[in-house]
Structures are given as C-alpha cells and as structure tokens.
Amino acid sequence: MNETPPPARLRFSLRRHRMGPKDFARVYREGSRARGSLMTVALCTNGLGHTRLGLSVGKRCWKSAVKRNRVRRVFREAFRLSLPELPSGLDVVLIASTPQLKPTLEPTRRELVKMVRKAHRRFLEKREQG
Fold it and tell me: Of 2, 4, 19, 58, which one's alpha carbon is 20 to 30 angstroms from that of 47?
C-alpha cells in the first residue's frame, strides 16, 4: 500500500483575493514596488494573518478581454502555487507589464516570488528608515 501523504491543498478562497478600491489605494500610497519583465509588484502589510492578492491588467497592455482574463488566470494560479513561499500578512497587487508573449505559469510563478521578496525587503527597509 502507498504510504505517501496526500499533497497539501493550496486553496485560494475569496478572502485571499478580495481587495477593495481602498485596499488598492493604500497599497499604492504606502507600499513599495519591484518591477520585473512580466509584472510590477506593489505590496504593503494588511494587518491580517494572511496574504491577499489584487490584480491590475489594463486594456493598454492587452486590448482583448479574452487575453486580459488569461493573464489574470495565470497570475492568480502563480500566486496560489507560490503562497507557501511568500511572507504572510501582505496585500500584494500584481500590475501586468507590457505584453511580451503569453505569460506561462512557471516563469510567472518564479518572477512573482522573486519580485514579492524584493518589494518586501524594500518595504521593510523603508519602514526602518522612516
């Protein structure tokens, strides 16, 4: 009989991605940013015990709603799979950069983790200075 434990479920409930306009404004105003080739990450602390996601995929980058929705799905899935590697208690806003190619999951996930860590480090440094 197979004795391997079942894989941990990485659920992505509404509380993980339900951010309102005030939350976005706070992240843009108080947070720090890191820019990558696929996305810009803006983040700040949220005072909650979990990390939340906000997405900004503008018409300027992708004219087609179908393409914008695909980018959102890839970003959302990359975030869901990366949750164990990310610090908790943050509001993270992913802002899609100019369209390169179609974003694929694994490169997006790697860049997301790298950019969140970089922005979080900047946020902590900014907090220590001021």
Answer: 58
Are residues 62 and 38 in contact, defined by beta-carbon separation less than 8 angstroms?
no
Using a 10 angstrom Cβ sphere, with 0-12 exposed, 13-18 middle and 19 or more buried, the burial of residue 23 is: middle
Q: DSSP state, 64?
A: S
Give the H/E segment covering residue 44: strand 39-45
Q: How confident is the model at residue 100 (pLDDT cuts 50, 70, 90)?
A: low
Confidence of residue 78 (pLDDT cuts 50, 70, 90): very high
Q: Where are the domains of the chain?
A: 15-124
Query: In whole angstroms, what separates CA 127 from the centre of its chain?
Result: 21
**What does the DSSP 8-state code read for residue 59?**
T
74-99 average pLDDT score: 90
Q: Say what the pTM is.
A: 0.83
Query: Per CATH, which fold does 15-124 belong to?
Result: Ribosomal Protein S5; domain 2 (3.30.230)
Residue 53 exposure: Cα atoms within 13 Å on the Cβ side: 25
- HSE (side-chain half, CA atoms, 13 Å) at 90: 24
